Amino acid sequence: MAELETPSPPSPHAPAVAWTPTQTRAQFAAIAWLRWRITVNSLSRRGGAGELAGRAVTTLIFLAILILWLGGAGVGGFLFASHAHIYRIAWLLWGIFLLCQILNIQFGQRATNFDPTQLIRFPMRAGTYVEIRLFFGMLTAANVTGTLMAAAVAGGITIAAPALGLYAFLAMAAFAAANALFSRMIFAWVDRWLSTRRAREAVTALLLAFSLVAQWANFTFNPAYNNHHHGTHAYQLSQQHQAWVSHLIQSSGPVLAMLPPHLAAASLTAAEHGDPLRFLADSLAVAAYAALFLLVFALRMLKEFRGETLSEAADGVRKPKTNSAKLRPASTAVFTQSALWPAEPAARASAPVKPAACQSRLLELVVTVLSKEILYARRNMGILYGLLMPIFLVLIFASRFASLGNSALWTFPAAVGYSLLVICPLTYNIFGLDGPGVQIFFFAPVRLRDVVLAKNMLGVVLAVFEIVLIFLLIAEMAGVPSPKITLATLFWAAGTLALNLIFGNRRSIASPKRIDPQRVARKQTSPLSALISLAFLILCAGLAVLLYGLCFSLHALWALPLAMALFAGISVAAYAQSLRSMDEYALQHREDLMREICKLG
Amino acid sequence: MPPAIATHALTRSFDGFTAVDHIDLAVEAGQFFGFLGPNGAGKSTTIKMLTGLLAPSSGAVQILGQDLFYNPIEVKRHIGVVPEGMALFTRLTALEYLRFVGRMYGLDKATTEQRAEELLEFMGLSDQSRKLIADYSHGMSKKLALAAAVIHGPKVLFLDEPFEGVDAIAAGTLKAMLQGMIARGATIFLTSHVLEIVERLCSHVAIINHGQIVAHGSLEELRAGVQARLPLHGAADPENSAEANLTLEQIFLNVVGGASAARPEQELTWLS
Predict the structure, then answer these.
(1) Which pTM does this prediction carry?
(2) What is the residue extent of each domain of chain A?
(3) How far is A458 from chain B (nearest CA, A)?
(4) Looking at the predicted complex, does its ipTM rise above 0.85?
(5) What's the pLDDT tens digit per position in B225-249?
(6) Under an 8 A CB cutoff, do B170 and A340 touch?
(7) Burial (CB count <10 Å: 0-12, 13-18, 19+), residue A470
(8) Considering CB atoms only, which of A322, A342, A443 is closest to B81?
């Protein structure tokens, strides 16, 4: 074989060739290409077209919401500027700041679809590493949204007062930079603080608890939910709450005035009053905040660049927890006689199989798998949140509706429908959290039908738990719903859940989505599956309304539970039938399942 | 007595690429069987088909005389598997995971509990019982995966790279356990890239290359086969009679053509 025509190796003593800016630019281009390819490749896998369609729909929805936000920011800027209340733009900017942080938490750092800390193994300068981390981190949906909203505010001000246009865009540019750099800084340090699983879970628990309390407070105190009940206790509480918040804002005024949103608004006020020096000073103060955030971010990145290891394994090495009294070298351990383990399963296998034994084995298996599912849920704050938050929200909604007093007919069905809206998507990705462990369902002596049944039980248990709670709550607050409506709703829920399980099980196997249990799992399924689930629910709700309308117009409401019972019966029978073919279906699609669920990273 | 593992014309294609091409294998009961091949030769695909993780495009698999595809449940009762990726549930503790696996294999609670504790002790993991598997090192995970694979006392054990990432002490423990199983009549089907381990443990070996079995037999039979293919310089030079003790690495390189390949360091002249 001919030798490669390449230059001779340089002598170890030859002077090193300097790293050139062209090489640095090539690194930027390579990383941009890498991210692009990772995105494209994730869509080109089997089922990618459907996922792309689902993602396109959710992106369109997000874009529509974004346009509303941008419109709101622009109109806000316009109104404050045109009514000479430009200082109030501070509240608009605080809103943008909070929204940006919430979106950052909600979406996570989705743009980082590879581990950027791996870049330190390549020859690059520390400054380049910081730039790369900064540049690619800035391109998150949250930061782009925040920046566009700041631009919209500047646009609104410019339309209202063209003379302020240049000032507005300069001030908003400084604010947008400070806003985006703040989130980069925070996320960089949060990664450091949350480098261990326990720390992550503790902080997640706190955040989720805060989120639940915030939801409760919103529904309890927000006048928007208490408009018609001025005499109620909740309304009085709401008034007290508003007064307390006003007092808090007033007393914290001096502190807030020193922070970027207020400083940016102050700079615009100065520009409006024809004081360019004050405008410059305030804008420079905002820019100084941006520089400070950048500095703190860069310090963290430089530590990363020097190879600081943040991982569970490294943590374990640093703080070995050993119990010397208990420790016993593995080599000294011995198997007792039971290690011979006469092939008990084989003995069982040769024995004739009795129907009762089959039922007992099925029950045993269902309990085993269900126990594992419950352990997983109990142990992961993200999953627990995903399961409990809907219950919490439904209960809050139900209590609100029930307290209106005049909605006994619809409150129970509406609350049950809402709970299914949240539970049904979970059934479209029942293997998502299993990771490589999913393989055991294929090499253990079990029927996939039984495993799927056990996993479905989690959804059923959740639904039953939630519906019982809703019923009790509504019965307490608005009186017991009529038996006809209650029965009809229960049958409808059973039928709807069974129908969703039929399709959810198949989507779980043929189009699964791997969920990383380390992250707060808000998205429990793929976008397409979530849309399918929503479509089914809408169809079932439409059927329910149709049947109700028919019975009502015929003055035969007594027939509604019977009609719903028929629907439930047909759905449950179809579900049972679908389970019979589950083994074959799972075997046909096991590769799709394992390719996605067992994939690394 | 039927072979412990038998395949007939086992084939698997992926979009026109044939990863495993009509392989016929017969592994007798009680054998410690090494399944070797270069990267991408079809080892993992084969082991996945033998354990029910992957459907073959055609062909048949029999385990202990029973067809894997017609009697999957019965076959799976008798096999243990450490697959690629180890099949662990990382959000469970080791004890919880072993309890789960034991129950999945149909063991009763008491037996599962007893064996799980015994296995954790044996593997040196009993002091880590409260730790989640997510926090385990690679070697610890490997030991746990092996513990899970044997908890039901399988008659046939499939191991995909069982010693990868396992320290020397633990590897010694595992080897002793596996040899003990062989002594008690189990059959072990093992893939590994560490040929010294395969040579030390396995009595029989098959080598797969480009999806086809290119060598199959006992180590002695393989040695004899390779010797027959070698030039006769060994016979002319009695001092080179070491050919009689060809290592598995030499056999492997000879069979898959590694010896004839260019030595890379001669080609990549720009490497310093």
Answers:
(1) 0.68
(2) 22-36+58-236+252-311, 354-597
(3) 17
(4) no
(5) 888 777 655 444 555 554 557 888 8
(6) no
(7) buried
(8) A443
